[in-house]
Amino acid sequence: MTDLEEALALLAAPCTDERFFQRALKALALVTQCRWAAFGRPSANEGMAEAIAFCDLKQSIPGFEFNLEGSPCEIIYQMRYPDTHLIYPNDLQQRFPNFQLIKDLGAVSYQAELILDNDGFPIGHILVMDPLPQSESTKSREFFRLLAQRIGIEYKRLLIARELAVHKQMIASTRQLMSFVDSNYRYQVVSKGYETLFDCSANDIIGKHVRELHGEEVFTHHLKPLLDASLSGQSVHTQTLIHPPHLDEPLHLNVHHNPYIDEQGLVLGSIVSAHNITEIQKAKQQTEYLAFHDALTSLPNRLALFQRISSLINTPQTTKALAIIYLDLDNFKEINDSYDHLAGDEVLQQVANVLNRMCDTSEIVARIGGDEFIIVHNFAHQDIESRDQRLLQFCDTLNHQLNEQVSLNGSSLRLTASIGYYWIPPDERDISALICQADKSMYSNKRKKQLNESI
Question: What PROSITE patterns does the record tag this protein with (predicted)?
């Protein structure tokens, strides 16, 4: 086998670990007939460079760091595409008299090729040196170019593999909810947080499809859309639900899905980071609930009433007529005075229950303060007389139910309410005015009732 054939065989060998760079540099030394070959790159330390791999055909030399200033490597990093090849055939020591490595090796010739990334920026270089003069050939220069490309690809792959290994180690050791899911939706790495949450070991989870861990519904409706977005290259931050089988209630999670991309631009999988925000979500829902509901009766409050009436009157009503019914409990103060305010609260809760039972779920029952309630009731379109008659019957039934069903300590209170109503005109949009009209009707009926009782 010729030197070129051996070099090509070395170059064609698959890269399985970092020994690839030593094999590649040996191939470069064979083709150029030079003693030394190296793969270097700028160091993280400013003004320095590091030899990632260094091949000496006569002895083994480990990687090392050196000062770029005053070295031939400094010149190669000042070059730009398309000029990425440099050679000093026989005067290396005269050109760089202060570069100690050249003196120590006794090198007199130098040849190098710059390695560029996809955007044309230098990421490293390969070089050969020899104690004898070099003569550049088309064969050696072309091999330099091919080798620079291959080493650049393998080095980026090595960096990605190292980064992934660091991520995997970090994921596996944390007690937070972190995992690495591959493009087939299978867990490859899970954190200790997953072991705690799902009450099983990491070995029981790794290799499983996400569907197996979370169930079909959660996977299809919550997790798969997020993973698909991440696997398409997007970074996703959202909130979602999961429901581990051994838990009674689902969990709310704040989730980050970040794609993991190789040097070819291919997405290898998704790094998932999640935080349990179930208690925060419950507190938020409770806060939102209290903002729109009466704390005592759990009925919608004034704010919710206005919003829901606004929605109703802005929706075309082709088969229904809407009436605002205003209720004010009669003699409620006497209940508080005769018993106590706790008894009064219990009565208000019972009233709320009666009104809810009397109304359809599509209708509105609200407490707007004290002992005052509002119902927005739907009636089928009929002539005005029939419609009013039905509404009066409904109000009578309300009073009858309050009279029969509200009690304290097992005894009926014979509770009644003064009730007024107002039909919502098709073109009316002022909700306060609508409620005011129903309030006036209620007050008028209350006065009539009081006059009748005093006679």
Answer: GGDEF
- Say if residue 121 is in the same domain as residue 8: yes
Residue 342 · residue 409 · CB < 8 Å: no
Is 183 part of any domain? Answer: yes
Written as one string, the DSSP assignment of 91-111 is: -HHHH-TT-HHHHHHT--EEE
Find the radius of gyration of the CA atoms of the chain: 41
Q: How far is CA 19 from CA 16, 60, 113, 408, in A?
A: 8, 13, 20, 88
For residue 235, give the amino acid letter: S
Rounded to whole angstroms, the Cα distance separating 385 from 401 reads 24
Q: How many domains does the chain have?
A: 3
Measured between alpha carbons, how far is 96 from 98 in angstroms, rounded to an integer? 6
Give the structural domain span for 267: 174-278
Contact 7, 29 (CB under 8 A): no
For β-strands 109-116 and 407-408, DSSP reports them as unpaired
Placement of tokens 């019914």 in the chain: 325
Choosing from 278, 303, 324, the residue where a domain stops is 278
One DSSP character per residue, 403-439 reads HHH-EETTEE----EEEEEEE--TT---HHHHHHHHH
Q: How far apart are CA 338 and CA 204, in angstroms?
A: 66
pTM, two decimals, is 0.51
pLDDT along the chain (455 residues), means of 10: 57 60 82 88 87 81 84 87 86 91 90 84 89 83 81 74 62 71 92 85 91 90 92 90 82 88 81 85 83 91 91 70 92 86 91 92 89 88 73 91 87 88 86 92 88 72
DSSP readout, 278-298? HHHHHHHHHHHHHHHB-TTT-
Chain centroid offset of residue 388 CA: 55
- Buried-state track 149-175, b at ≥16 Cβ within 10 A, e below 16: ebbbebbbebebeeebeebeeebbeee
